[in-house]
């Protein structure tokens, strides 16, 4: 059984054809398999969609907050446990993916930076478009940032290198509670 959908947006037309047991194919005017726009919100939406699909494929029920102001983008529920997840879209640069645990936004008063409060999220899901994979890390296990290697480093360094393969699967057990110190709970720019 084959189904077909025709879409039109901004003067451009696409045809999406899919087989019941196969992958859909897309064709049309100016079709590019990569994301057409590079707007920050579009990237975030794509990362969240990929994280959702990855978690559902792993057997989790995925919940979305009813507000954009929550510190997490989605919640994965499985085995009687809830996991708050913040999603980051990050492209690979020089064979690595880097994430700073902070939020940056701009308004009429300028650009603002706020460190992630690790008591408000359990995991960060990093979606990398070059590998089309999601990687799951606990911010409590790292300092202010983390760098994952997608490709081996040119100098063959192995000590202290975090390979993406170690972070590919979402943990199936709850993370142990994190003991916070007074210094960890102080908020500030970072």
UniProtKB/TrEMBL annotation:
Source species, domain of life: Bacteria
Protein name: PD(D/E)XK endonuclease domain-containing protein
Provenance organism: Flexivirga endophytica
InterPro entries for this protein: PD(D/E)XK_Endonuc, tRNA_endonuc-like_dom_sf
Residues of the PD(D/E)XK endonuclease domain: 38-169
GO terms, molecular function: nucleic acid binding
């Amino acid at each position: 059984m084959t189904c077909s959908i025709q879409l039109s947006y901004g003067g451009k037309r696409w045809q999406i054809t899919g087989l019941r047991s196969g992958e859909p194919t897309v064709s049309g005017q100016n079709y590019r398999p990569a994301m057409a726009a590079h707007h920050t919100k579009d990237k975030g939406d794509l990362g969240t969609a990929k994280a959702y699909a990855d978690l559902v494929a792993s057997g989790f029920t995925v919940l979305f907050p009813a507000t954009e102001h929550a510190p997490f983008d989605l919640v994965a529920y499985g085995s009687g446990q809830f996991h708050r997840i913040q999603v980051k879209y990050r492209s690979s640069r020089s064979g690595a993916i880097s994430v700073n645990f902070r939020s940056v936004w701009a308004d009429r008063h300028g650009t603002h930076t706020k460190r992630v409060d690790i008591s408000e999220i359990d995991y960060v899901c990093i979606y990398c478009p070059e590998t089309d994979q999601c990687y799951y890390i606990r911010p409590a296990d790292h300092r202010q940032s983390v760098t994952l290697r997608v490709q081996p480093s040119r100098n063959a360094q192995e000590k202290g290198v975090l390979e993406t393969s170690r972070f590919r699967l979402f943990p199936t057990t709850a993370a142990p509670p994190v003991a916070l110190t007074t210094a960890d709970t102080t908020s500030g720019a970072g």
